[in-house]
Amino acid sequence: MAETSTARNACDVAVWLDNAAGTPVDISGSSNQVDIALDFKLGEYTTFGGCCTYRLECGQDGTITLNAVYTTALAEARAELSAWATMGCNKNARTLSVYLPDKNVASEHWYGEFRLESYNITADHDDAGPMPVTAVFKPHGCVEYTVATT
Amino acid sequence: MALFRVMLRLEKGNGIIQPGSFTRLEWLSPRKQEMLQGVGAVSEVGSPPLAVIPGWKTRAGKLEEVGIEDVVQFIEADTAVICQALDRQPKTIEKYRIELLRWMTADEPVGG
User: Fold this and answer.
1) Which residues of B touch A150 (CB under 8 A)?
2) Cα distance between residue A60 and residue B70, in whole Å
3) What is the SS3 assignment for A144?
4) Is A147–B35 a contact, with Cβ atoms under 8 angstroms apart?
């Protein structure tokens, strides 16, 4: 089998998140890990006399987890997420976009309207690195997938 | 001018071209068209013969005599040559071109 020549790493992944005004903000420079997980709801059944399990599918969900570094500038991941997380009970959904392996022609573009499920900042005095910031997003609707042409 | 079948949902400005549609990707450079082909987002297809286009059988016969046999050849050919072959005015030829382009493409809006 021919060895692949198209493997790509995550160095140039791009993450964009809407700010409170609905303007997409590139937060790639202040985040360093993103995990996209899609879940498909399956219901299983077996029948009398049968030995196999069958499954039906209906519905899907997903989760995007973003790890960022603690920074102090505005329009970066920590500032946007902190502002969103502290908006009170009606935070509304925001558009989140992830471009893999980079933001270029032919790149994968995962996006959708997301609600903030959890937001976590860990402050550890023994850790010399920047404080880690983690946000978990749940889709409000479908997680969309397109191929970028710009 | 190549013709492509869209295989994966493809962004175009604020819209999306759905899989199964045809597009010329005229807004992209040949290099970018190649990049999209490389990831399987589009697949180049052959240009359909004019004779199979509904209502084009007679025109196809006349155009074949001047070496124009498929849609892409018609769109790219010298207008004067087509005018002479079909005995039509340039304005009519442009209408034919628009008709063929509409027949070949089926871009869809956002939200599909």
Assistant:
1) 11
2) 44
3) strand
4) no
Domain ranges of chain A: 14-147
Q: What is the pTM of this model?
A: 0.80
Do B90 and B69 share a structural domain? yes
CB B36 within 8 A of CB B42: yes
Indicate which of B4, B7, B8, B31 best probes the interface with A, i.e. most A CBs within 10 Å of its own CB. Answer: B8
Does A91 lie at the interface with B, CB-CB under 8 angstroms?
no
Confidence grade of residue A100 (pLDDT, cut at 50, 70, 90): very high
Each residue's pLDDT tens digit, B18-41: 898 888 898 999 999 999 999 999
Question: What is the domain range of residue B54?
Answer: 50-104
Instruction: For chain A, say whether B28 makes contact (Cβ under 8 Å).
Output: yes
Mean pLDDT along residues A44-60:
96
Answer whether B105's CB lies under 8 Å from B22's CB: yes
Cα separation, B11 vs A146, in Å, equals: 6
* Cβ contact B9–A106 (<8 Å): no
Question: Is A106 an interface residue toward B (CB < 8 Å)?
Answer: yes
What pLDDT shows up at residue B100?
Answer: 86
- Residue B92 within any structural domain of the chain: yes
Average pLDDT over residues B86-107: 85
CATH for A14-147 is 2.40.30
